[in-house]
Amino acid sequence: MHGTALSGWLLVAVCAATGAYCVLRLRSDCPRARSSAGGEALMGFGMAAMAVPAAFATPPPWIFAGYAAVFGAAALRAGWLVHARGAGGGHHLHHAVGSLAMVYMALAMSAPGGHTAHEGHTGPAGGVPLLTGVLLVYYVGYVLTTGMRLLPAAGPPGDGAAPGWGARPELTLACRLSMGIGMLAMLLAL
User: Fold this and answer.
1) How far apart are the first and last CA of the chain?
2) Domain extents for the chain?
3) pTM of the full structure
């Protein structure tokens, strides 16, 4: 990824913290909280690993094939869950898109020229590649809609019983929002 070392390390920290919270959600009593936590943990830790600034550690050439294989498998699993759950698999569709975006970034980073792998598939004016642009539009929409869901809703107060730590919807949304913003940052730095 391009960019300053500070922004790279901040992205690593946010993505790793998000991945760690998602691992904790795997132990929740709420089945709904556990259903997507594994995929989100993988995404958080994978984004953290891919965002490590190149000035700190030059990754071996084979690592990008490893990223592509892991996230390709995650995309297949998410696609299977979308198919198996039908209309109830909406968030798994997002996981499939995110995993495929990670495959795309891994392949782009592995191309000759290192992290500047957009040669040969840029847009008509030599700008942003079409697939990168489509993913940017998708993630801007995702970040905006997820951010809107975090806004407090007016309504009658509940019974006062707070859900367990793994089933806090606002924390889950905040993690998803941070990963969406992280994905935007990674796509912009590609």
Assistant:
1) 6
2) 5-151+167-189
3) 0.80
